[in-house]
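Quick start: read one record
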Amino acid sequence: MMTHEHVSTPSPAVPTLASIDAAGSTNVGRERPLNEDAYLIATLQRSMIVHDASPAAARGWFAGASAGTLLVVADGMGGQGGGEVASRVAINTVASYLLNVMSWTGGEVAPTQAPERTSLPGVRDQLSSALVIGDSTVKHAAAGTATPAMGTTLTMALVLWPVLYVAHVGDTRCYLLRAGKLTRLTTDHTLAQKLASSAELPLDPQSQLNHVLWNSLGGSAELPQPEMVKLDLELGDRLLLCSDGLTKHLSDEQIAVHLSAEEPNAARCARFVEHANAAGGSDNVTVVVATVVPLAISSTAPPSHLSPPLPQ
């Protein structure tokens, strides 16, 4: 497991609570027959279903306070629909693991309390385990099919305010935009990047090795080597998770410009897809954009983590 940690000290003026406003979009592009990308935006929270009670009590589903936000992008590989299966199986497996196994429900705070600066125990180890289990599930799904070598990248961001955890394999990416500065939080797990990093040589953007992964879920007999990143978020921070269908056509400088635009996150996602397709659309393109926004302490309703859809 590869780990990186960036810890920032928040300003005393930062409010104690925040919400994640997120939106996503995926598109087949202009050249591929199938969309083998997938994404997920989810709120993790405690819940209770009351089936019956006395005296006359409300029945139904009751949601507790939000414990975290999960953002995932996966880019499947394998052809003949195998990549489509791999990306969805991987996302479903990882989400199921977080929901049913990981102790993410610990550490919530009351609205009048300051958020804990310490992270939950073993979060990075459990996120790494989720990816390893995702790898096993993809390989099991591939066995006996027409695409036994199907696999997928997967980049996952888990926000347990104020801490962000990123778990990653492949060449999907996670970016952080803070105060106008764009930072790539993940490393592309391609042979080209690996050779360039080990030899400290410039990366050749034309090399075919840019399209060869050494680290993925499924796709080989090797176990994945999850890359883990942990850092503290601040109000106004913006995250972008994307497949390489975006980064093949837009530079980091172009991404920073579009991510900084003053518009809803759903509009940002639509604009990213539009620009990727206008620049060639050689691959499926998937984007998830999330912004850290203040949450009013007086609010008693669970925060919404989804941007409203754009008008059709």
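The chain has one domain: 2-47+62-294.
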